[in-house]
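Recall that a protein's primary structure is simply its ordered list of amino acids. Everything else, from secondary elements to tertiary packing, is in principle encoded there. The following example makes that idea concrete.
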Amino acid sequence: MGNSGGFVTDSNAKSYAEAALNTWDETSKYQIEYSSTTVGSGFSWQINGRSELEFGIRPDGIGDPFPADLVDTDASVDVVDPQGNALGPADPRIAAIVNDFFKDRGGTDYAPITMISGAELYIMLAEMAGNDADAITHLNMNRTGMTPYDGSNATVADAIKHERRANLFATGRRMLDMYRFGETSLLWETQFEAKSSPGTLFPITIKEIRANPNCPLPG
């Protein structure tokens, strides 16, 4: 892939990922677990309690916070599988993570945090692959039961970005990925640096935008 577009090329990272995958597979995870008998998860509270992250919300503010209606309706909220149809349905892996984080854990402040996973390691190897064919091979390790990438519906770069969104959802990676890939959101005001110079400032959260009548949602 080279290092264009923010992709990783570190040879040490490649060696570490390959070594870890000698004992892990794409389903392996290292998680920090929380419960009512431990400290709470601040990350979980921000999502489940404060609602800093909401699911299925379109730029016009309409949506369902649970995964039953996670359908892409806007290019900036690209949660659909790029190997499938252009407008849906949503990638099932995202819905599974939402179920775990919200429903299966009761929407509490104790949802687990995934620190590293086999899926992320395969995506790292795809970023560091020297050619598209090897990159696609690594990405397809995470697509059991799904149509494999074949290079026809999505570029390798777009496939890597999507796989990070689908497999690393609710792990705290998205903002950093947006910065390194130079991506922005329709919800970020065009006159501010978060939009014009990604990576310089944090954007205002969706909860604060909705609480301020002077910040209408686009759409």
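The chain has one domain: 4-211. The CA atoms of residues 82 and 154 lie 6 Å apart.
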